[in-house]
Write a structure and sequence with these properties.
There is one protein chain. The protein is α/β, with parallel strands linked by helices and 212 residues long. The protein has a single domain, classed as Spore Coat Polysaccharide Biosynthesis Protein SpsA, Chain A (Alpha-Beta Complex), CATH 3.90.550.10. The protein is built from six helices and ten strands; from the N terminus they run βββαβαβαβαβββαβα. The termini are far apart.
Length: 212
């Protein structure tokens, strides 16, 4: 089955106070971290970055790679408009992994887990989507099957495809940590994400040193 990755980065980030897609965690812009998380999973093809507000600046913050960029002209209409642009930009695929550009703790490893656990259920038609859950809170990335993709034209407002799907058709996957639910809406969220990322990096270094 063909699976695309769609990174939504079109919003104006009014709550953050500035273009949060360009805010940095560990010296890397949030949008670049999201694109790297998707691009690091080889089976995801194409990788589509959706920009809108100040789209040229957002696109320029991402190093050249195997992703393609599409512009959502009606980005002000909300998340649904960005998602529609991404699905159209991805072309004909069987499924799509939806990532948000404001979730800096989502890694390629998390994307792979959602893909590995979700694709069998989607392939059998048991579920229409799969997403990670942490302490009862649903998060991203969301793996969306063809049934959901086919309904993208029905979306309106600041909502995602899950609003059109029956809850029992969404496979909930228990996450190993809080990464799927940490998003950056306000500056305090950026500080939280940065602290968690720094703690994880320090723990990884200690583990590496102990292994030597």
């Amino acid at each position: 089955m063909s699976v695309a990755a769609i990174i939504l980065a079109a919003g104006a980030a009014t709550r953050f106070g500035s273009l949060k897609q360009l805010a940095e965690v560990e010296g890397v812009p949030l949008v670049a971290r999201a694109v790297a998380a998707a691009s690091g999973v080889a089976v995801l093809d194409p990788v589509v970055l959706v920009v809108g507000a100040e789209g040229e600046r957002v696109a320029a913050a991402v190093p050249e790679g195997r992703h393609r960029t599409v512009t959502c002209e009606d980005w002000a209409d909300g998340l649904s408009a960005s998602l529609r642009s991404g699905i159209v930009g991805a072309g004909p695929v069987d499924a799509a992994m939806i990532l948000l550009a404001d979730q800096p703790l989502v890694s390629s490893a998390l994307v792979r887990r959602v893909l590995a656990d979700g694709m069998p259920a989607l392939a059998k038609g048991i579920h229409d989507a799969a997403r990670p859950v942490w302490e009862g809170r649903p998060g991203h990335p969301v793996l969306l099957g063809w049934r959901g993709l086919s309904r993208h034209r029905e979306l309106r407002g600041d909502v995602g495809i899950s609003s059109l799907l029956e809850p029992e058709r969404i496979l909930l996957l228990r996450s190993l940590d809080e990464s799927p639910v940490i998003d950056v809406d306000y500056p305090r969220d950026l500080r939280l994400a940065s602290n968690i990322a720094a703690q994880r990096a320090a723990a990884a270094r200690r583990k590496s040193e102990q292994a030597v």
